[in-house]
Design a protein that fits this description.
Distance between the termini: 16 Å
Strand content: 25-35%
Number of strands: 4
Helix content: 25-40%
CATH architecture: 2-Layer Sandwich
CATH class: Alpha Beta
CATH topology: 60s Ribosomal Protein L30, Chain: A
Low-confidence stretches: none
Number of helices: 4
CATH superfamily: Holliday junction resolvase RusA
Order of helices and strands: EHHEHHEE
Largest sheet: 4 strands, mixed
Strand order of the largest sheet: 1-4-2-3
Number of domains: 1
């Protein structure tokens, strides 16, 4: 198992929708920025390449309860695309990604996201 830590938080579904409604370029810039952020964190934390199918356990350490849980999980797109861009996984299709589980905690002083990458268990 490997654990990736992302400091702060990634955009929520409402923020993604707002960016895309502004114009197509704002949404594209947002996607590129946060995908690259995840990629850079993978590289900095030396997350190793995984050849087989993986399961993910993502824990959102939220500043407070103001944002709904379903809004947070939209950032999974940036996480998976960042893992691909960092060459940790080959793709994010059904053949490469098994289960994705989520947990939520409150951490007022240090909001972050923990992504546990594990070998897929059938």
């Amino acid at each position: 198992m490997q654990t990736l830590k992302i400091d702060g938080r990634l955009p929520t579904m409402n923020e993604i929708i707002k960016a895309n409604r502004t114009n197509i370029y704002v949404g594209a810039i947002q996607k590129k920025r946060y995908t690259n952020l995840v990629m850079m964190e993978c590289m900095a934390q030396e997350i190793a390449k995984v050849d087989g199918k993986i399961d993910l356990h993502i824990t959102f350490c939220c500043k407070d309860k103001r944002i709904d849980k379903d809004n947070y999980i939209a950032s999974t797109k940036f996480i998976l695309d960042g893992l691909i861009k960092a060459n940790v996984i080959k793709n994010d299709g059904w053949d490469e990604i098994g289960k994705i589980n989520y947990d939520f905690t409150i951490n007022k002083k240090e909001p972050c996201i923990f992504v546990e990458i594990m070998e897929h268990k059938k």
